[in-house]
Write a structure and sequence with these properties.
Layout (H helix, E strand, L loop, with lengths): L5 H6 L2 H12 L4 H19 L3 E5 L4 H14 L4 E5 L7 H13 L3 E4 L3 H9 L7 H22 L2 E4 L4 H5 L21 H10 L4 H4 L13 H5 L3 H12 L4 H8 L1 H14 L12
Parallel strand pairs: 1-2, 1-4, 2-3
Helix pairs in contact: 2-12, 3-4, 4-9, 6-7, 12-13, 13-14
């Protein structure tokens, strides 16, 4: 555990303090992490009596790591990757997704969501903005995953990481809809490191995060902070460090923004309220 002293903060710049914290939180035994997660995945499928892991593969680091873990835990023939691009999906993401699936010897299906999303939106009297259409796309994607899981005696494997889950950066009943979250206990920084350990291409492990639900969407731009600061905030909070210490690492503005994201997104992590009569 890092011990922060006043002298430490005086000697280091904020960037240096952030780098130190990120380095510490990323310092895991990734061989052990891999072994534990593979065992948990295999045990979960055995306990539930399901045969096939259904994974939505986007070309990003989170889905790539989840896919690789499932392929190693269950064998590639027991994993189905669904690649579901839209008109907003970068060509490189599509290429990276297909290349990874082939490299891991996993079966996959490719189909566009545009027709379904456009057809549903055309029935509405309102004029949906990009956020409404983006969330609709995520929920249509979830429906496709579950349709395949139902027909193949499978389970939907979620691809959310702890950073995004903690701040509510996911679509409720969209990418939040799944049966298992293999990397849900890992911060984004740790997921990238695990991806490197698993031998995933640098083009994927170093790729800036984006849900790609609308054109030129950037996760960090939308969040108004960086994943490094989110990870530092969450990790330092878990270690019991004070808000004053967190602010010295993440900055006052970013710390306030992360706290706001956690508060606003907390309802996504709670059971749907059943109101008393």
């Amino acid at each position: 555990m890092l011990v922060f002293k006043k002298s430490c903060f005086r000697k280091q710049t904020m960037a240096g303090q952030l780098e130190k914290v990120v380095g510490e939180l990323a310092n895991l035994d990734y061989q052990k992490v891999e072994s534990n997660l593979k065992k948990c995945i295999a045990d979960f499928f055995k306990r539930t009596g399901r045969e096939k892991a259904i994974v939505g593969v986007s070309g990003g680091v989170d889905s790539a790591v989840a896919l690789a873990l499932c392929a190693r835990a269950l064998k590639p023939e027991n994993v189905l990757g669904l690649v579901m691009p839209t008109k907003h999906t970068p060509n490189q993401d599509l290429a990276d997704a297909k290349a990874l699936l082939k490299k891991l010897n996993c079966e996959y299906e490719l189909f566009s969501l545009d027709k379904i999303v456009d057809e549903m939106a055309s029935c509405w009297s309102m004029r949906p903005d990009k956020m409404v259409l983006g969330n609709l796309t995520a929920r249509v994607r979830m429906a496709h995953l579950y349709a395949h899981a139902n027909s193949l005696n499978g389970l939907v494997v979620g691809t959310g990481d702890r950073s995004e889950i903690s701040i509510g950066y996911f679509t409720k009943f969209g990418d939040g809809g799944c049966d298992l979250l293999p990397i849900g206990g890992l911060l984004k920084t740790q997921v990238r490191k695990l991806g490197e350990h698993l031998g995933l291409p640098t083009a994927i492990t170093a790729k800036p995060s984006s849900p790609a639900l609308w054109g030129d969407q950037s996760a960090e731009k939308e969040l108004e902070t960086t994943y490094e600061k989110v990870d530092a905030y969450l990790w330092m909070s878990e270690k019991g460090l004070s808000m004053d210490q967190i602010v010295k690492v993440a900055g006052k503005k970013d710390a306030a923004r992360i706290r706001q994201l956690i508060e606003y997104g907390s309802h996504k992590l709670e059971p749907v309220p059943i109101l008393p009569i």
